[in-house]
Amino acid sequence: MSFFTKLRDRLTRSSAKIGEGLDGIVEAAPQAAEPAPAPVPAPAPGLVGRLFGTTPAKPEEPRRALDDEMLEELEDMLVQADLGVDTALRVTANIAEGRMGRRLSSTELKELLAAEIARIMTPVARPLPLYPKKPQVVLVVGVNGAGKTTTIGKLASQFRAAGKSVMIAAGDTFRAAAVEQLQIWGQRAGVPVMVAAQGSDPASLAFDAMSRAESEGADLLMIDTAGRLQNRQDLMEELAKIVRVIRKKDPTAPHNTLLVLDATTGQNALNQVETFRQLADVSGLVMTKLDGTARGGVLVALADRFGLPIHAIGVGEQIDDLDAFDADDFARALVGL
Ligand SMILES: Nc1nc2c(ncn2[C@@H]2O[C@H](COP(=O)(O)OP(=O)(O)OP(=O)(O)O)[C@@H](O)[C@H]2O)c(=O)[nH]1
C-alpha cells in the first residue's frame, strides 16, 4: 500500500471533520430550483468506492454563493479543525480573494482549501537532511508519550533499509520501561541500542555512544532523550549537557534536533514547539498519531506559525507507518479529496 493511500485511509477522523464540515457549509444554503437530476445509484461507500475508480460521478452538486456569512462559517470550521485562528483567517481570506459571489460546490471548495493548505505546507515539507559527516548525530526530543521511541525505531529501520549503518542511544536513562521499548524497536530495526545503568548521566551515555559510533564508522547516531516537562530547568540542563558533551567529540553535532509531537494534543503542540525551542535548538518536526485524531489540522497551524521543516509523519504503530511529509498528499487527504 502506498503511503498516500495509507495516509488517506487513516486520516479519516480529521478529513471527516473538514470534508463533512465543507459539505455542510455548502448545503446549508437554500438551493436554487434546478431540474431534478435523474436518480443515480448511491456510490458504493468506502472500500468499494475506492477500489473502483476515484470520485464517483456526482449528480449536480449543491452550490453556494461565496459571501461573508459563508466565509465566517468556513473560518469557524477551520478553527474547530485545529488550524488555529490566525491560519484559519489567512486561508479564508485567500480563498475569498477574487471569488466573492461565485457559486461554489463542495468539491470546488475542497480543491481551493487543499491548494491553500499545500501552499502553506510546501516550504516546510523537507525530508531529514543527510550529511556526509560520520556519524551524523540526531538528537530526538519531545514530551513523554509523544512517540519518540517509535519514531526513532521507524527512522532507524528506514535508514538501515537505505543502506546506512545506524546506532541508537537510550538517553532517557531514568525510565527503565522507555529503555526497554527502545531495545525492542532496535531489535525490530536491526540496529544496536546503547543503554546505561538506570539513573546514570545521559550525557555520559551520549559521549560513549559518540565514541562507539565513531570507532565503528556508523553513519547515523540517534539519541533519545527524556521528556519530563514537569521540571523544565532540569530538562534544559540535561539537554544542554548532552549537547556540550557530544560537541567535545564533534563541534558540529548534533546535526539535527528533531522534535516529536503528538497530533492528538491539538493546539497544545504549538505550546510544545515554543517550549522545546527554548530548551533545544530544534531543527525539524515529526508529527505522530495522525491516524488517531480529528486534530490533524494542527500541522497546518504549526507550518504557518513556525516554518520549521516537517520531516516525517506517523500514521500508525507499525514500523512502516512513518514516511516523509508530502504537502500535496497531506492537503488532499486532510480535506477529504
Ligand atoms: N496510533 C499511533 N500510535 C503511535 C504512533 N506513534 C507512536 N504511537 C504510540 O504512542 C505510544 C507512545 O509512543 P512512544 O514512542 O513510546 O513515545 P515516547 O515519546 O518515546 O514516550 P516515552 O517512552 O514515554 O518517553 C505508543 O503506544 C506508540 O505505539 C502513530 O503514528 N500512530
UniProtKB/TrEMBL annotation:
Gene3D superfamilies the record matches: P-loop containing nucleotide triphosphate hydrolases (3.40.50.300), Signal recognition particle SRP54, nucleotide-binding domain (1.20.120.140)
GO terms for biological process, alphabetical: SRP-dependent cotranslational protein targeting to membrane
Swiss-Prot/TrEMBL keywords: Cell membrane, Cytoplasm, GTP-binding, Hydrolase, Membrane, Nucleotide-binding, Receptor
InterPro entries: AAA+_ATPase, P-loop_NTPase, Signal_recog_particl_SRP54_hlx, SR_rcpt_FtsY, SRP/SRP_N, SRP54_GTPase_dom, SRP54_N_sf
Residue numbers binding GTP: 142-149, 224-228, 288-291
AAA+ ATPase domain mapped to chain residues: 134-317
GO molecular function: GTP binding; GTPase activity; signal recognition particle binding
Domain Signal recognition particle SRP54 helical bundle residue range list: 47-121
Topology of the protein relative to the lipid bilayer: Peripheral membrane protein
Residue ranges of domain SRP54-type proteins GTP-binding in the record: 135-336
UniProt keyword annotation of Cell membrane present: yes
Pfam families: SRP54, SRP54_N
Residues in coiled coil: none
Statement: the UniProt record of this protein carries the keyword Nucleotide-binding: yes
Compartment(s) where it occurs, according to its Swiss-Prot or TrEMBL record: Cell inner membrane; Cell membrane; Cytoplasm
Region of interest (Disordered), ranges: 32-62
Subunit and interaction comment: Part of the signal recognition particle protein translocation system, which is composed of SRP and FtsY. SRP is a ribonucleoprotein composed of Ffh and a 4.5S RNA molecule.
Summary of the function given for this chain in its UniProt record: Involved in targeting and insertion of nascent membrane proteins into the cytoplasmic membrane. Acts as a receptor for the complex formed by the signal recognition particle (SRP) and the ribosome-nascent chain (RNC). Interaction with SRP-RNC leads to the transfer of the RNC complex to the Sec translocase for insertion into the membrane, the hydrolysis of GTP by both Ffh and FtsY, and the dissociation of the SRP-FtsY complex into the individual components.
Entry similarity comment: Belongs to the GTP-binding SRP family. FtsY subfamily.
HAMAP family xref list: FtsY
UniProt-recorded name of the protein: Signal recognition particle receptor FtsY
Organism taxonomic ancestry: Bacteria, Pseudomonadati, Pseudomonadota, Alphaproteobacteria, Rhodobacterales
